[in-house]
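Why does residue order matter? Because the sequence determines the fold. Keep that principle in mind as you read this record.
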Amino acid sequence: MRRIAQALGVRASALYRHFESKAAIVEAVAAEADARLARSLQSNQKKREAQAAAGLADRAFKFAVQDPHLFRLASRRDSCEHPLSRSPPCGTRSPRSSGPDRWGARLPSFPRG
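Structure:
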């Protein structure tokens, strides 16, 4: 308790003016340690996510430079045609629209460009 009080710049007896017991002091220190650990882990997670996004962008750029024609072709595809797309299939109702897909129901698929 003396070291804690010294770190705070007070006497050990002053700690008991703010806490009921030694166990309450230890609990408060443990709670602060948990909070600091949580902030540290969140910070590291955000760094890893940023690094992963940067790595993904780098790989996409390298692909575009190495194979510009394939990259151009891949980036022209409609999202409704992509096998991993979460969009509804072309020509079907979108949850955000009141009617059929604006272009898919009326026009054949033409390459852009």
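Helices lie at 2-8, 12-18, 22-66, 68-76.
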